[in-house]
Amino acid sequence: MSTATLLPPAFVVLAVALVMPFVSRRVGHALGVLSTGGVAVWSLLAPAGAHLPVTFLGFDAVLFNVDEFSRLMGIIFGLIGAAAVLYSYSSAARNVQTAYALGYVGTSLGAVFAGDWLTMVFFWELMAVTSTLLVWDYGGKAVRAGYRYAIAHGLGGSLLMGAIVWHYVEVGSFLFSATDGIAAGVPAALAALGIGVNVGFVGLHTWLPDTYPRPHFAASVFLSVYTTKTGVYGLARAFPDGNLLIAYMGTAMAVVGVGYALMQNDMRRLLAYHIQSQVGYMVAGVGIGTALATAGAFAHVYNHILYKALLFMTAGVVLSRTGEENLKYLGNLRGALPATALAFTVAALSISGFPGFNGFVSKGMITAAAHKEHLDGIFYLLLAGGVGTFMSFIKFGYYAFFRDADRDWSLDRAGTGQSVAMLGVAGLCVAFGLYPDALFAILPGSTADAHPFTLSHLGEGFALAVLGVVGFVVVKKPLSKVGDVPDVDTVLNPAVFYGTRGLVRGATGLFAAVDRVVSAAAYDVAGTIANPYPALRRVAGGLGRSEADSITVGSLRATIATSIALVVLILGGVLVGLLA
User: Fold this and answer.
1) Strand partners, 266
2) How the protein sits in the membrane (predicted)?
3) Is-contact 449 292, C-beta < 8 A?
4) How far apart are alpha carbons 85 and 91 in whole angstroms?
5) Which one in 1, 57, 127, 219 has a CA-CA gap of 20 to 30 Å to 115?
6) pLDDT, tens digit, for every residue of 298-340?
7) What does the alpha-carbon distance between residue 374 and residue 288 come to, in Å, rounded to a whole number?
8) Handedness of CA 392, 474, 462, 340 (dihedral sign)
């Protein structure tokens, strides 16, 4: 394919986002489905190596590049984008909201198809802007959550930008092809922290459960997909050979995220914590760095996008039909919302890694890679995270759909577009679970040791499921008494707020004090120049008559000379200004 004929797919989606507010809902959302679906098809068919070199801000850059990593990201980003736009249309989302969402999709595509660090960070920052606008669009509590979200991603993006500038100083190029990953040392540390905000490193993760439950439920479907998975892509670009510290951080994310998720009653907050947990598996795979681990990490990116978007879709239907988001006040919805209950069941089994569903395939690849490298701590902790995931979604399903509730719901069922989107994605979760070779064909890395249907792997999957059921039965009663569980933002948010306020007040107070001292001194000097006699009399009070007379004459001469010099300077400045 000639580079001259390439049109980056990000630009197509962004163009639709720009025109969408000016057309009807039907036309706008139809264009959204066609553009995002077209990206998925184009990404699948585009030849490897297709690229578009440009000069960006005076530097050599590659605006668009197709390789095994960007191809996979383009396929799944486009595919789920089409399903999410269809779901939004059936969920009565306004054109403006979906336009912001498509802007978010387009900037994410720009980041993952970039062929250099400069282009990637440009779209990375735009992705933070468009996703913030998507959150803010809903108003209410989403506005404050959006501010915190913007601050977090502004800091993360600044750290990543610092890493990229430092990398350029050391390497002399922004191109991915110029070096194997980000430069070691300070650039690598800054990149890990900056990208760590996007993927939800432990301690940098609280924007996830704080933000994702706040906006319109259809917006949450988009939000659950793009930021964190673009972060995983960026991490793989920065550390293509892995890094054990990153692997252990991913393992911590998997365990901490599932622990917090298990204690949540708010549906979308539970799902947000599980984003951190599931992304932890991907981060662990990138950190392990072997060919199998890398393939497993990106298989899990692909599979997670499918089942996590599906979970947010089902939660959105429940919320929109019942008006309730707390699991404690739900129950017995399987009869009132049968398609939603079916889609949820498929998604829950997929995220839990039950045999026959797509999560089983990709989770097994990552745990197998850890086991093969004798990383026993990572291996067993990831298995423990799997048990916690089963427990979390048994809890979700039990309280929302299968528990006998006092009330008999009489509700409108999911809309046609919602059902088509949910059942279509659910079908893909099953298809890739039963026929993983379809996914293996587009994965980066090696899948030689990845096939899931071995006795040991099947036994592992069924054992985790049994442990999850037993675990939920044991903790069900204690969990029912758990209220709001504090996270680090309970301390972090007030500390940042009051710390920033103290810093601002201290800086402005110091400035005011210096200003007062300088102003007082200036007024004294000006007053002395204008009328030197009071000062001279004060001085003369401590001197003899002859000394005072000599000082008076000298001061007068100095005053006259200073005045003449000031007049000359002022007139000279005016003359220069007129001549210019």
Assistant:
1) 326
2) Multi-pass membrane protein
3) yes
4) 10
5) 219
6) 999 999 999 999 999 999 999 999 999 999 999 999 989 999 9
7) 11
8) negative
